[in-house]
Design brief:
By secondary structure, the protein is of the alpha/beta class. It is elongated, with a radius of gyration of 20 Å. It has two domains: about 120 residues, Glycogen Phosphorylase B (Rossmann fold); about 150 residues, 3-Layer(aba) Sandwich (Rossmann fold). The mean pLDDT is about 95. α1 packs parallel to α4. It has eleven helices and eleven strands.
Length: about 300
């Protein structure tokens, strides 16, 4: 493997998909290498942190249309690509190989979808290992600044609160709202403060739950701010969602509830993560969270 390569990594997908790519991106950042990520904003912006991407680009920009449409003007795309020594793509771009061949540019394409029972992050890492890159010792941890202003905004102190995100991108992935309410009551009865996490599609469920079990609501925060806040929590609990992946990547003790997807493939990765599959009661999940919370000390 040559030193000092300029590498373009391509991964277009959801928040969780993007975060699961970060260990493989960290492996590409060998000494002297410059790595840039082409992906989906705002998720790929999270990779702009030490040890990950030096720069990021939105795949929604007009110049990248030529990856999909052979009639599209590709002069600007080719000018962009010719700056790189290597492309590592975990995406389905129909014309990527054609453009790379025109530039005689080395390009390695791997399906972003893992085989059955193989974790997505391990699948992506295998493609990087095959190129001679070494896996990082641990998944990279996201750090974006001082949490104090955010904690003050919500009246919280470090490691004093349980962060709860009761939604996801699919209803079939979600623990029942009344179970989240019961879990929250267990937490408050034990003297834990709460922080409800609300995304852009979560208003109704979070509004109802925060009335049932009061606590501040962090609504639609920029992802870097949300990661900073979650990193300061005593623990995080959520469904199989991008926010759960974000919490784990930020270093929060993370309990991820899996109801319909396979955690062997899609569980969050982080320094302290526990997966609970369908069937566990709120009281049992609270017990797991207590044990997990102790792991941060």
């Amino acid at each position: 493997m040559d030193k000092g390569q300029h590498i373009l990594a391509i991964r277009a997908g959801s928040l969780g998909d993007t975060i699961l790519t970060f260990p493989a991106i960290a492996a590409l950042v060998a000494p002297g290498n410059r790595v840039e990520l082409l992906g989906t904003l705002p998720y790929s912006e999270l990779a702009k942190t030490p040890g990950l991407a030096h720069d990021v680009h939105s795949i929604d920009r007009a110049r990248f249309r030529a990856f999909f449409d052979e009639r599209a003007e590709d002069r600007e795309l080719l000018t962009f690509l010719e700056a790189f020594d290597l492309i590592v793509a975990w995406a389905r771009l129909p014309l990527l190989g054609v453009k790379a061949d025109r530039l005689q540019l080395r390009c390695v394409e791997t399906s972003p979808n893992p085989p059955e029972a193989v974790h997505a992050s391990d699948h992506l890492m295998a493609s990087v290992r095959a190129l001679g890159f070494r896996a990082p010792v641990a998944p990279p941890e996201l750090r974006f600044g001082d949490p104090s202003p955010l904690l003050e905004l919500y009246g919280l102190t470090p490691a004093s609160f349980i962060a709860i995100h009761p939604s996801s991108g699919s209803p079939k992935k979600n623990w029942p709202p009344h179970w989240f309410a019961e879990f929250a009551r267990c937490a408050t009865a034990a003297g834990q403060d709460l922080l409800w996490i609300q995304g852009e599609a979560d208003h109704d469920v979070v509004s109802s739950l925060s009335r049932a079990v009061p606590g501040p609501v962090a609504a639609e925060l920029p992802l870097r701010d949300l990661a900073t806040l979650l990193a300061s929590s005593a623990a995080f609990i959520g469904n199989d969602s991008g926010v759960s992946h974000l919490a784990a990547a930020a270093g929060a003790p993370t309990l991820a509830l899996f109801l319909s997807t396979d955690p062997r493939q899609w569980a969050p990765r982080g320094r302290s993560v526990r997966v609970v599959e369908a069937g566990a009661s709120p009281e049992v999940v609270w017990g797991f969270t207590l044990a997990l919370k102790e792991s941060r000390y």
